[in-house]
Amino acid sequence: MTPPSASAERARLDERAAVAPPARRPRRPRRPDAAALLHVAEAYALLGLTIALIVLFSVLPATSDTFPTTANLQATLGNQSVLAIVALAALVPLVAQSYDFSVGATMGLASIFAATVLSGGTPLALALALAIGIGLVVGVVNGLLVTRAGVSSVVVTLGTATILQGIVSWKTGGQSIVDGIPTSLTDFGSGNALGLPYAVYVALAVACAVHWLLRHTPYGRYVHALGSNANAARLVGLDVRRLTLSTFVIAGALAGGAGLLQVARSGAGNPQVGPGFTLPAIAAAFLSVAAVKPGRFNVWGAIVAILFLATLNSGLNLAGVDSYVNDFANGIALIAGVALAGAFGRRRAGSA
User: Fold this and answer.
1) Strands 192-193 and 196-197
2) Is residue 158's pLDDT more than 60?
């Protein structure tokens, strides 16, 4: 066989080169655009501000000896664990664009009845069931008044909170319930594991459960759809009334469970404690739109907001400022949260 000529070999190589794909040039790594950087800044700005406050109070002469201590960290986080659960209770209806201003009063009522039955020798499991059951009843009443009677959720829950506080005053006569609380419960409320109070682990477990429910289940997607556009949710076949009712029921159950945890932390049923939780919890729930998932009410954003408020309030208290300054801070935080929620909502509507 005769070898191929040089011209034939060149033609074959040219044909093969024409068929073969051109060599790919290595891609240059993309630079993050301005929108992505802005999103990251929005997501972690509140966390960054919290860290800045920690640094500030750690070096401020008035608080440098007391703020950056293990004892203060444990006390701050332990005290905020109950507030975290109450804030998550307020968050669930907010996702569906409803408002529950009775979560603090529900927690207070549940704590009083739980302390009452515990002082009478009732087992701890039954006291927990009673506390959650009280919250469920309050949630059902709120939900039915909103969905069936057509009353604004703001009006309903504010009225419910007032009624519940009246029941607490009638039940206790203004006196705390301190006798007969089991030491096993108070030991749990004051105990620590791995440097953190047990109550913190309870709050984290509840946060994980609520996050899973709202972000990783069909129910959570339905509630988010309801919050985004109730008319559209109704047109695609979602039962808007039932979904709205369910958010109030979940809120009540969470607030009721927080009531027993409050008894564990304080060792008593305090008739004055409930209303003091409402404003910080609502503020944290609203501020969640400014952290982690900007523009959306979200669980971890609420936790970051609670850490921010806890750091601010703890530092101010240790600095010796008057108590009304904390009220100013919580009120400003609530206004800022509502304003941010409205701003993010308008932006999302404009981009839709």
Assistant:
1) antiparallel
2) yes
**What distance in Å separates the CA atoms of residue 349 and residue 228, rounded to the nearest whole number?**
9
Q: How far is 314 from 176, CA to CA, in rounded Å?
A: 25
Residue 43: name the closest of 301, 344, 216 by CA: 301
Distances (CA, A) of 147 to 47, 151, 159: 37, 8, 16
CATH top class, domain 49-56+64-351: mainly alpha
Query: In the chain, where do the E strands start and end?
Result: 192-193, 196-197
What is the predicted pLDDT for the residue at 290? 76
pLDDT digits (tens, 9 = 90+) for 209-219: 999 999 999 99
Q: Where exactly are the structural domains of the chain? A: 49-56+64-351
The pLDDT score that the predictor gives to residue 238 is 86
Nearest alpha-carbon partner for 348 in 25, 28, 39, 9: 39
Per DSSP, 29 falls in state: P
Q: What is the pTM of this model?
A: 0.83
Closest to 88 in 3D by CA, of 253, 317, 272: 253
3 to 12, 19, 134, 139: CA distances (angstroms): 14, 24, 96, 92
Rounded CA-CA distance 93/203 in Å is 19
Q: How far is CA 110 from CA 9, 83, 100, 115, in A?
A: 91, 14, 16, 8
- Residue 27 has what pLDDT? 61
Residue 16 pLDDT: 57
Question: Per-residue pLDDT for 206 more than 80?
Answer: yes
Tell me how far apart the alpha carbons of residues 286 and 339 are, in angstroms, rounded to a whole number. 9
Torsion angle in degrees (nearest 10) through CA of 156, 157, 163, 168:
170
User: Tokens 């301005």 — which residue?
Assistant: 34
Radius of gyration for the alpha carbons in the chain, expressed in angstroms and rounded: 27
Find the range with the poorest average confidence among 12-16, 44-48, 257-261.
12-16
